[in-house]
Amino acid sequence: MGFIFFLMILFFTVLFLGLTVVGNILRIVGRMFGFGQQRQTTGDARQTYQPHDTNEHAAERKKIFDKEEGEYVDFEEIGD
Fold first, then answer.
1. Is this structure's pTM higher than 0.70?
2. Cβ density class 43-56: b for 16+ within 10 Å, e for less
3. Is the pLDDT of residue 70 over 60?
4. I want to staple 30 with a disulfide (CB 3.0 to 4.6 A). Which of 3, 16, 35, 68 is the partner?
């Protein structure tokens, strides 16, 4: 009885690990080929998923801080 229980646990562990590996491979392949991305099916305000900024969007972004803006703070170390 104990040996059969051990074999069942071993079988389910191998099955779980195998399905995990297959799922990760499918997810990676899906990302490579663009599967699973949101699609715009109606004329509403939803937009399609874009993982990276395009050049158009990069030009629209504004800087929050100027390059010269900031403050230098002097510090001193405190010993024990």
1. no
2. eeeeeeeeeeeeee
3. yes
4. 35
